[in-house]
Specification:
The chain has 227 residues and is an alpha/beta fold. The protein has ten helices and nine strands.
Length: 227
Amino acid sequence: MNPEQTIARLDVICRRARILPVITIPRAEDILPLADALAAGGLDTLEITLRSEHGLTAIRRLREQRPQLCIGVGTVLDPQTWARAVEAGAQFIVTPGCTEELLRTGLDSPVPLLPGVASASDIMLAYRLGYRRFKLFPAMVCGGVEALKAFAGPFGEARFCPTGGVGPANLSEYAALRNVMCVGGSWMLPADALHSGDWARVEQLSREALRLLDAGAGDTPRPASGQ
């Protein structure tokens, strides 16, 4: 997928997502009810991490049984894992950082890559290969809102999905930034709710997250897709 195609596809995915839940599946039986609760709350674009043994199973099951959802895979660290994720049906790839090996894999893949960056040097590495859409991770550790404001100067074409430390307390600050295309996080998936199967709470937190996002964005002009 060439850089222009990657940018266009990620713009569509992130515009649809607005908030990208970062999901680690605790039990295989939770896959469908967890995804259904998020979707009922308005979050139908999901990042399934490979931090548990159920990650690839979740991608396959959701692609087969919930085709209306958009399913990506996170915690991709090498081309071998990338290949397994694509085989399972992942519709986009998210990495926690960027290496030239992974960035070049993205140029040869039919599935778009959202590479993780934490510094200007990371962005420059990916910029050289045509990437303009990034996951800022871990957002709070590497500067959060202030880092994104600083990146807007030298990297005017870049758009970000900040993830890591994003939640209700600072969501509106991120939403107000012109170079933020969506945000990622897992605050709508508290551990106790997952443990008890409290899917109604997951749905409620998802709805509340979108309301907070709308309140934060307000009437701030948003950049056009691909700009």
